[in-house]
Amino acid sequence: MTDTPLPAAAGLGTFERWLSLWVALAIGAGLLLGNLFPGVFAALAALEVASVNLPVAVLIWAMVFPMMVGVDFGALARAGDKPKGLIVTLVVNWLIKPFTMAALGVLFFEYVFAGLIPPDDAQAYLAGVILLGAAPCTAMVFVWSNLTRGDATYTLVQVSVNDVVMVFAFAPIVAFLLGVTDIVVPWDTLLLSVGLYVMLPLVAGYLTRNRLVAAGGEAAVDAFKARVQPFSIFGLLVTVVLLFGFQGEVILDRPLVIALIAVPLLIQSYGIFFVAYGAARAWGIPFNIAAPCALIGTSNFFELAVAVAISLFGLGSGAALATVVGVLVEVPVMLSLVAFANRTKHWFPAERGAS
């Protein structure tokens, strides 16, 4: 496996570099519009089928589908070439990250912030951060890998394996963790969300990718992803507007809530990165594999977390708000970790052999 650069379409463009700003502006727009046109947002909230909001479902698909087109099941055959990085990623994503996020959520929302947040709200925010912790990133990982000059093919293997694991592991882990915190879990809605936002887009992406490859090879796939990527970002920003439109009254009444939710998310993000990065360094994994494997464990599939939070608890829920705060926190955190990784690449051995 060689250190192959990602296609230009996967790079961090000007718009993506300022994603935190656009998210902040979307939050402001949502707060403003929600207070100016409450009836419009109430009507949008009522457009539901089986607890799934239809406008948001369309937006989530706009976010998820371009990512799924990039998943190459053929890369799974190369997963055993360099097992160490894959092992670190899988252990961190599925045996550590969901449980440390739940523990931090309980610590802060039930104890540290007990006097600042009503108990019902605390449980809702706890549910939201649990959903974030159990959803490893799918798409932005390629951006972080590119910025650290990571092995693009190996990153694709890690993402592909994580997506397959997520189809089977996400629902049981979330149900277990939410059950531990005494939150009633509607299994039918949870499984519907996983099917709607992971399995179906994955199948659609697989079929679309096969047709593109047959027509024009990988160049056709890259061109297609470049064309549809703006719809993904548009879907994210409009979803944020809707969510904050429904949360406007709560946020204006308690402006510190965003900062309180961000605290455990920040601790989790930096903590998980250093666990994975330290393990990779101790195991002698080359930097072009070590950096992406640590960043994959740190980043979240916030589109899925937002979608499931909406399906389980509603558009105006504290759980949905907590997942949206995760969107706001993630980009600046990940950019800071990319910078740290690039400054410390001399800690790791150069590319060699199977790792």
Strand order of the largest sheet: 1-2
Question: How big is the Rg?
Answer: 19 Å
Q: Characterize the overall form.
A: globular
Percentage beta strand: under 5%
What is the string of SSEs from the N terminus onward? HHHEEHHHHHHHHHH
Number of helices: 13
Number of strands: 2
Largest sheet: 2 strands, antiparallel
Q: Let me know the average pLDDT.
A: 80
**What proportion of the residues is helical, as a percent range?**
over 70%
Estimated structural class: mainly alpha
Cα distance spanning the termini: 10 Å
Unreliable residue stretches:
1-12
How would you explain this protein's 3D organization?
With 355 residues, this protein is an all-alpha fold. It is built from 13 helices and 2 strands; from the N terminus they run H-H-H-E-E-H-H-H-H-H-H-H-H-H-H. It has helices at 14-17, 19-36, 38-45, 54-69, 83-112, 119-133, 140-147, 152-180, 187-253, 257-282, 287-298, 302-313, 318-343, and strands at residues 48-49, 52-53. The model is unreliable at 1-12 (pLDDT under 50).
